[in-house]
Every structure is written in C-alpha cells, then in structure tokens.
Amino acid sequence: MSEIKHNWTTQEILNIYKKPMMELLYEAATIHRLHHDPNTVQVSTLLSIKTGGCSEDCGYCPQAARYHTNVEGNDLMTVQHVKAQALRAKSGGSSRVCMGAAWRNVKDGEEFDQVLEMVRTINKLDMEVCCTLGMVTENQAKRLAEAGLYAYNHNLDSSEDYYKKVISTRGFEDRLKTIDNVRKTNVTVCSGGIIGMGEKVEDRAGMLVALSTLNPQPESTPINALVAVEGTPLEDQQPIEIWDMIRMVATTRIVMPETQVRLSAGRTQMTREGQALCFFAGANSIFAGDKLLTTPNPEVSEDLKMFETLGLNPQKPFTKKGQPQTVEAADSKIEALGEKPKWTRPEHKIERNELAKQNRKLSQ
Ligand code: SF4
C-alpha cells in the first residue's frame, strides 16, 4: 500500500493533473485498487434541513439571501420530518444522510439542540450521519460528536487565492479552523470544493494542496462541478467539460489515496459513460436523490440502473470506521458554552457579487 504524502506542492499536483489522460487514468485506478474495493460506491443522501436566507455572499450559491434566485427558504425541519426522510433514503440504498443548513456558523440554542436530536435519531437508524452547518467551534464539534455524528462537511471550495474571488464574507482561514475543531473529536472530516467557477487549473491544484497537506487528510472529499444558477454571480459560467472532472477526480485519488472521493453537484450534466470513467479514476461516493440541497440530481432509479450496468455495489454503513455511540441529551457531559467566536468578515469587494446583489434590488 502506498504511503500517504502530506507535503504535496502545487507544481507536483499540476504535473499529475496534466498527464496524458490514459496514464493519469491508469495511475489513479491502480492507487484506487490498493486502497478501496473498486466495485463499491458509497451512496449518501443530502437533506436540506434549513434552506435559503443565508447571510453570506458565496458567488455560486442560490441560497444566499442577497441574490435573486428561485430558491424558497424554509425554517429548520422537524426531527420527525428528518427521520422520515432518512428512512426513505435508507430504503433507497443510502448508507449516509448529510444534513445541510444554510447558516454562516452554528449558534448554541434551540435550533442547534434540534440538530443534535436529528443526529441522535439518524445514528440510531444505523446510518452514518454527516452535517454541514457552517463554521463550528470546538465545543460545538464535541457536542455533535457526543450525539453520534459520523462526519462533518466543510468545503474549502477552491484555492485560497481563488476563494477570495468568490466569497468575501467569510475567510479561508476560518474554514481551516473549523476543520481543525472537528479534528479535535472523533468525527471524520469531509472537505472538498467546486470546479468550473472560472478558476485556473493552478487553483484546482492549489485546493488539492490545501486538502492533501492536512494531516490526517480528509476522510471524504466532494468534487462538485458548478451548477450555474440564474441570479447568482456565477450564472454565466459555462459548464466544465467531463474531462476536467475526470482529471480532477483522478488527481484527487492520487494525492489522497485513502479518501472517499465524492461525485457531487453537476452529475445531471454527466453521461453514464462520463460517470463510469470517474468511478474508474477513483470516485467512490455519490449523492442520491433528485435534489442536491437546491440543485437537480439524478433520480434514485437512474442511479440503481447505472450501478447494475456497471456491477457496482453500494457501500455498507460504517465500513471505513465504526459506528459512533449516541449520548442522550439528558446524559450529556458537554455543556453549551454560548460562545460568540470572532469568525472573520474580510468584506473585500467582489465586483460580480456586488452586481448580482444590485440586480436583486432592481428586481424587487
Ligand atoms: S454556500 Fe453556505 S454559507 Fe455560502 S451562501 Fe450558500 S448556504 Fe450560505
């Protein structure tokens, strides 16, 4: 088994990314087979437990309140609703539920307590539970861990340089700090990014440097292709070519051999053949369900057909790491601290974000 390298440089990663396609595929597939069962793919369901109305200015996101998109906001889902959705996901073959809330950061209080109850409920269904709730403090990460959280998602989105051209309301260093806070618990880390936002290949490599030099590397890395949504600052971005996705997946596999590489947003734009090449290149996780938070995703039945055609099997829950224990709220040993952490707000001007904000005002 190859060793995990934690000192990748941008140039080394670019050299991999730019290899002739057949060599890249062969190398990635070989490494994939050393670390994973090539015929097993994890199936996760992404559930938007609180949609829209977000205060941030992420240029790709239709949930940002400042842009004019068709996303209808809703309040935090009830625990019962989440349980029903999780059971549905389980019967559709998902082994993991990832709950997303359009928040800048977690705030202690009733809503967070409700999310902790959702975590307990899903863990008791013997499914892996992941949350993506924005920035978290160490204390909040510990409370999530105590409730039975399996993974926390916090994407780096792009290279540190390009991140600043997409988001101005939260800093890259806060992303790393959140990952660090999660690492102080036994919760696994899910972190990746988006390609097709107008970044250069150097930025794609830069993002992989930031992820692969984390020690340990993330257990899971989603690779999203931008879904350009009308009304967002990135609405005019052209879809990336499938070859970019395959190169990105293969390169991620090579630099992070043990990580589960997740085909995420943008799968509806990919053919089955394209997805098959991504699996060959080392992708071993997908999101199931007809929606990914707010953007379209292939139907579960289409994925099942694809699995059958390719002879793929869904990964069983807790294959990579044992099931965490759930501590009930009444038995919790970790108190909420009611912290008010000073997450950064760089607030530099991003022209296209400003323009999209103005367009919203004009449309009102
Ligand atoms: S990506 Fe998350 S933090 Fe950014 S605007 Fe969307 S919901 Fe808010």
From TrEMBL:
Keyword Amino-acid biosynthesis: no
Cofactor: [2Fe-2S] cluster; [4Fe-4S] cluster
Molecular function GO terms recorded: 2 iron, 2 sulfur cluster binding; 4 iron, 4 sulfur cluster binding; biotin synthase activity; iron ion binding
Chain residue ranges for the region called Disordered: 340-364
Cofactor note: Binds 1 [2Fe-2S] cluster. The cluster is coordinated with 3 cysteines and 1 arginine. Binds 1 [4Fe-4S] cluster. The cluster is coordinated with 3 cysteines and an exchangeable S-adenosyl-L-methionine.
Residue ranges constituting the Radical SAM core domain according to the UniProt record: 39-267
Gene Ontology biological process terms, A to Z: biotin biosynthetic process
Pfam families associated with the record: BATS, Radical_SAM
Binding locations of [2Fe-2S] cluster: C98, C130, C190, R262
This protein's pathway: Cofactor biosynthesis; biotin biosynthesis; biotin from 7,8-diaminononanoate: step 2/2
Ranges of Basic and acidic residues composition bias in the record: 340-357
Catalysed conversion reaction: (4R,5S)-dethiobiotin + (sulfur carrier)-SH + 2 reduced [2Fe-2S]-[ferredoxin] + 2 S-adenosyl-L-methionine = (sulfur carrier)-H + biotin + 2 5'-deoxyadenosine + 2 L-methionine + 2 oxidized [2Fe-2S]-[ferredoxin]
Highest taxon above the source species: Bacteria
This protein's UniProt keywords: 2Fe-2S, 4Fe-4S, Biotin biosynthesis, Iron, Iron-sulfur, Metal-binding, S-adenosyl-L-methionine, Transferase
Entry function: Catalyzes the conversion of dethiobiotin (DTB) to biotin by the insertion of a sulfur atom into dethiobiotin via a radical-based mechanism.
Family that this chain belongs to: Belongs to the radical SAM superfamily. Biotin synthase family.
Assembly mode: Homodimer.
The name this protein goes by in its record: Biotin synthase
Organism, scientific name: Bizionia saleffrena
Gene that encodes the chain: bioB
